[in-house]
Structures are given as C-alpha cells and as structure tokens.
Amino acid sequence: MEPKLVNVVQAVDNTFMLIFGISAVLLVGITAAMIWFVIRYSRKRNPTPATFSGNMLAEVIWIVVPSILVMLMFYSGWHSYRALRDAPPDALEIKVTARMWSWDFEYESGKHSGTLVVPVGKPIKLLLTSSDVLHGFFAPAFRLKIDTVPGMTTYGWFRADKPGEFVVFCSVYCGLQHAKMLTAIRAVSQEDYDRFLAEKGNAAGHPGKALLDSKGCLGCHSTDGTPGIGPSLKDVWGREVVLVGADKKEKKLKYDAAGLTMIIMGPRTGVVKGYEPLMPTYADQITPDELELMLDYLQNGDSSVDGPEAGRAVAEAEGCLGCHSTDGSDIAGPSFKGMYGAKGMATDGAKIDRAYVEAVLKDPGRRLGKPSSMPSYPSLSEADRAALLKFLESLGVAAHGADAGSASSPGAPPAHDMTGHDMASPAKAAPAAKAAKPATPAKADSDHGAHQ
C-alpha cells in the first residue's frame, strides 16, 4: 500500500459502512426469519413436532458464509488500519504535548502554538506524548484517535485536503477540566503556513489576544476574517448578529461590552444563527481582569500593552495559571502570590528571586537538583521572559521565613517548588509547555458562533 495515495478518511469510512451494512442485513434477516419461524411453525399449525436428523447444506452455509463475512471485514479493517499507521516518508513532523488541560504543538522551526496549523495537501505526522496523565488526541474530521502517554511517544498522520478548521477533543478523562480540553486543526495554504511560522511570539501583541489564544478561542475563531468553527473576531466590536433562542425565535444582538460579556461568560440567550452550539461558557475560567483585557483587544485591536498585565498574558499563554494561582490558593503547584523571597524547593535551599526563576525556566531539573515534571521553556522570547518576571514581581514578596508551596492548611496539597509539581502524584503534575487551552464543547446549550 502506498500511504500517500490512500484517502485515510475514505478508507475508515468504507470499513465502517461495510461492517454497518453487514450488521444491518444480518439484523433484518435474522429478525425476519425469527418472525417467519414463529408463525410458520407455531403449535397451532404443527401440533406434532417434527424430527430432524441433520442438513449438510445448512451446516456448510452457516460455516462458510460467516467465515467469508468475517474475513471480508478483517481485510477492510486491516486496509484502513494500515492507511492510518503508514505515514508517508515526506510527512511534515509536528510534536504534540498534551497536558491538563490543553495542547502544545511544536513545529520543526521550534515555534509553539495552542492551535495546530497545517498546510493543505501536505501529509502531517504527529509525534504525541503527555507531560502528566493519559490524554487522547481525537480529531473526528480525520478519523484520528491516538492516546498520549507520559514517557512514551505515539504517532499518527493525516492530510487536510481543503482549507478549514476542524475541532480536536481529548478522548480520555483526565481530570477536572477534561471536557474543556479542546483545540482545532487549522488547514491553510502553504503561503499562510509559512507566514504563520514567521510570526513572532506574544510580547509584540495585545495581552488580550494572548488570553484569547490561551483559552482556546483562537482555535475556533480567526482574527483575519476567515470563517472557522466559529465566526471570525475581525471587526467584531459593534457588529450585530442574529441569535436563535431555545424557542427557535430570532433576535438581534449587538456586540458591545454587555453583549460580548454575555456571550463569553453566560448565561446565553441563544445561538448565533448559522453556527453549532459547541462553545462553552467561561464564567468559572475567566477573571474580571482577564475579561477586561479580552474586551479591550476586541474593541481596540492588536496594540501592545506594557506593565504586569502583559506578563499575565504570557503566563496564561504558557499555561502557568492553569497550575499556579495568583490569589494564594494551591492548585497543582504553589501560588504565584508572594512567591518572590520565599524559600524554594531546590536542594540548595535558595530563595526565589529573578535569577532563580530564570534558571528554572531554562532547565528546571538542573536548577532544582532533582527531577521535575515541569518542562523547560527554550522557545520563550526575552521579551516574554521579561514580561513574565515583571508580572511575578508584581504579585508581592513572601513574608519572612515563608516557603514556596507550603501548605496553608492540613488538607492542602503537598509542597511544590516554583517549577514545580508534586512528583508523588502524576494527576497533579502540571505541565507548562506552551499550549492554548481550547474552548471545548462542554455544554450543549452554548454556541461557537457566540464568541463573535
């Protein structure tokens, strides 16, 4: 088999339809035969039971025919399995790292993104792993479902034959926000793909845009006017759209601060006409300050913002705030609040300062002197690093003698370090590879179009 010439989606669909068709024919045939036997050979029609000594033709038929059907299904299944597994030798390799609860895609150039961007017509080979627990990469449009396993690299491949955006789910329950672990595959022209690889990091843009990326919004909503799973965010401020309510009645909505807040945070009064109800609400995921930055970006565009909030956007985009709070509470790792000046968990007992954080970002295990579940950040630009440090410094200095990651109560999680995650509990391990947490279809009453 030449994988490059195989339409993988068609091969899988053919196998499904074959098995479904055979099953349907058997169901109808067996049910019809059962009904006919019940009527034809009822006690009323045949008061005296008949005696049978065997039927060679019937025995041959029920052995040979099922065997042929089983072998036919096996051959079709093997053909589609090979199509899924035999990646073309010229496939473009992209590394995929799953983590609670987002995806990180690393391209051959070293660029990272939270949405998988691929060129149309080019075979793509995904090298998948997980930095914490089991996850599952599930892209229904390409009939692709691959488990991601910590410490192991699995693979799969696909080819997008037309431009568009295709949703990606996590298919393995992985904790609290499993249902919201969504991203998208964005298939673009080769020119747009090259332009994407040449784009710079977050520091040059508005922190509100980085927040939209980190929450997975940009995996479904473009910023350049191209259609996707949800409508584009280009020139969204002030636009009027039509919402379809649960009662099927239509009404207009203006995208101003109130309208966008209702769409993002919920509860929603309807679904934007022409789009599926896939988008979740974010009332429990977005703080008022983050919402303000998002709205500012949607209103004023991609202008840069200085100060700690720019660093907060970097922390969001890198996934840090999925594991480290800013209010003193413990999640998977210690809170960033008051972290500076606290005693870290490194073997040398050093206190956390700018140099400590920079060393941890470059190589966590080396700075700590022990294994850490937190990855390094080789792709973090100097501007992003500086903004992140400014943000951490703005959250205050620890009280004298405090330790980073010290539990605030007997029931609090075990102590972590700044890098760090509890090595004794993989379920708490918090990855920090750059990945956007996708806006996932967690609630049936939400809508993807609403984000506009």
- The percent range for helix content is 25-40%
Q: Based on DSSP secondary structure assignment, what is the total number of beta strands?
A: 13
Briefly note the structural class of the backbone: alpha+beta
Tell me the series of helices and strands, N- to C-terminal.
Answer: HHEEEEEEEEEEHHEEHEHHHHH
Sheet with the most strands, sense and barrel status: 5 strands, mixed
Task: Give the overall pLDDT as a whole number.
Answer: 77
Oligomer description: single chain
Query: What's the Cα radius of gyration?
Result: 27 Å
How many angstroms separate the termini?
45 Å
Helices, by number, come to 10
| Low-confidence regions | 1-5, 406-452
**Strand arrangement across the biggest beta sheet:** 3-2-1-5-8
Strand content: 15-25%
Overall body shape: elongated
Descriptive labels:
452 residues; 31% helix; 10 helices; five-stranded mixed sheet; single chain; disordered C terminus; disordered N terminus; elongated; alpha+beta
Structure explained in plain terms:
Helices cover 31% and strands 15% of the residues. Strands 3-2-1-5-8 form a five-stranded mixed sheet, with no helix packed on it. Strands 4-10-9-6-7 form a five-stranded mixed sheet. Strands 12-11-13 form a three-stranded antiparallel sheet, with no helix packed on it. The chain is α+β, with helices and mostly antiparallel strands and 452 residues long. It is elongated and about 95 Å long. The protein has ten helices and 13 strands.
